[in-house]
Write a structure and sequence with these properties.
162 residues; mainly beta
Length: 162
Amino acid sequence: MSGNPETYSKGTEDLLLQRTRPRPIPAEYDRSAEGIPPGPILVGAGLRMKVTGVENDYLTCSQLDAAGLTIATGVKVAKPPELRHDKDWYESVVSINTIDEQTMQANSSTISEIWFVKPPYIVDQTEIVAVAAPAALGLIVDEVALTLIDANVAGRAWSIPE
């Protein structure tokens, strides 16, 4: 197929989202020789956070105590890699176009799809569990490397419109 990529909707046999797999784990996360499964290992107790802002690759949160009272604000938490706006994370995706912080257009050489985060992060409502990641996450915001990542206990994933 040449020319512009076609836009497919749900029900199409050859959905890009279904064909796309995350790329292999980067070498800096591969600790299989040490008997540790590959991938970023999350450590420590989870921190209760309320989402106060959503960006393409990270969240701004307020840290909550056990009673739900705010004990810190402006905490930056990385989104899980599979929810970032990063074409290099997906094998079949050659480019992305950001529509908003939770929606992007993913393009292969023949297919173009709109992907959105489901369930969405809802500002001032969604609570997440943030955990420390021992390896560098590769995200720098305001000249500070992020060290917390959303544990994604809600099972958020890219979806396509129904």
